[in-house]
Amino acid sequence: MSPRTATTTAAVHPLLADRWSPRSFDAAHTLGDEELVSLLEAARWAPSAYNAQPWRFLVGRRGDTTFLRILDALVPFNQAWAHASSLLVAAVAQENVEDGVPQPGPSYDTGLATAQLVLQAHALGLHAHQMSGFDADALRASLGVPEGFRPLSVVAVGALAPAELLPPKLRERETAVRERRPVAETFFAHTWGTPLPVRP
Ligand SMILES: Cc1cc2nc3c(=O)[nH]c(=O)nc-3n(C[C@H](O)[C@H](O)[C@H](O)COP(=O)(O)O)c2cc1C
Q1: What is the distance in A from the centroid of ligand 1 to the CA of 20?
Q2: What is the mean pLDDT of each run of 10 residues along the chain (200 residues)?
Q3: Transmembrane stretches, by residue range (predicted)?
């Protein structure tokens, strides 16, 4: 158990309890080929509605052009720390528009596949941090994302570095207490807002 471990009212799997989103990555770490493929396989084997697999991923390792292009598309706040990660993965969903109405399914499924990649990273002893702070049009243009596909998020993956190496503002966030909305305000039964009557 680390100081970042989630405080839960009943035990949850350590992979879930210990996952968190750091910003301090070791800029000297490089990802092995097998680790990389393992992350991608975890995403590829996600479930999806009708097994449509509406996701695609653009994958850049630190030092290559894809990494730089994804990094360039991040907002400056995210660039400030994500540059030290070992891997940047842009998750892209194939859009599904029916009768002029964009369907939520592809985003749901792509988020799920991304979550599997994130958890696999933690299972390998790495860390992952998802971001929505990026310019989707810039990413589209620099990486040639075709019409009908929508960049949804970017995930930074790498090895954890000490929080002390971050600039003060980021260091504060890195060590802040992790919080969640209480169980009673999140899970309802009978009617909306009525807490589920469970006690651990
Ligand atoms: C879809 C998504 C987008 C996010 N975007 C950003 C972001 O742009 N920049 C950032 O620093 N963190 C971002 N985060 C990280 C969240 O702030 C973080 O997951 C949340 O505070 C909970 O912390 P934890 O992951 O350590 O439990 C994002 C997370 C998700 C799932």
Answers
A1: 9
A2: 90 97 98 98 97 97 98 98 98 94 94 98 98 98 97 98 95 95 95 88
A3: none
